[in-house]
Amino acid sequence: MQKIVISILLTALILTACGKSGSGSKVEEMDHSKMAQEAGSNQAENVQAVFKPSTDKIMPNQDTTIMIKIQSKDGKAIDKFDTVHEKQMHFIIVSKDLSIFNHIHPDYKGNGEFTVTTQFPTSGEFKVIADITPTGMGAMSKSQWISVQGSASAPKAIEPDATLTKVVDNKEVTLSFDHLMANMELNLTFTIKDAQTKQPVTDLQPYLGAVGHVVILTQDAENYLHVHPTDEKASGPDAKFMTTFPHSGVYKIWGQFQQNGKVFTVPFVIQVP
Ligand SMILES: [Cu+2]
């Protein structure tokens, strides 16, 4: 009898210890990074991207071709890329105040060279971000500021949203988190309803091979977060993703989803405590 009591007590003690320190998730994090190291999957430091616009005077609202060359630190072309979410490169363009967002897909020309033709809608500074997975080197992003000619209008302040419900293209989209903390893997869920009828939207179509695509940037556009869907095959009303915010601060999140053949983009600004 006494033995049983002791073992119950011990179990309780162990459970309490795990719960209290949150050491469970820390251990898990360590395991992940260890695994990544062992797989040699993060070689971002050894890879560079050269962004070459077709002109050094980029004008707003005019077709501009940008060549993106992916190479090693010593200038050797890197020429093999994994296809991730149906593409070998995802290319994100944002204005400095993050009010303008564009997500496009450059064509791979071989020999580490991609090209894309786009238009910048205004003057000012834009950040371009290439999201790639060179084969065997892991997922990474490379970015550069690009200047568009003309006098830019004053940047808008980036303020955290008071409410995480937005209406876009007649869809009411609510963003929620299981817990909102820096430096901890977390789940973010977009819940999508018809804005008029309030009925759950259940006929989302796959977009880039998943229920949706999410981009997250720090307020200064310097940090591009890795986000992945946790249930790729979902069709709504919930679209779930996983990410880790590297530090506290203000982040902008764009969720992109497809219904009836049309992609809609929902932006949110959040404060991570
Ligand atoms: Cu993409």
Automatic annotation (TrEMBL):
Keywords, ordered alphabetically: Signal
Point out the signal peptide segment: 1-17
Instruction: Kindly provide the name given to this protein in its UniProt entry.
Output: YtkA-like domain-containing protein
Q: Which species expresses this protein natively? A: Paenibacillus aceris
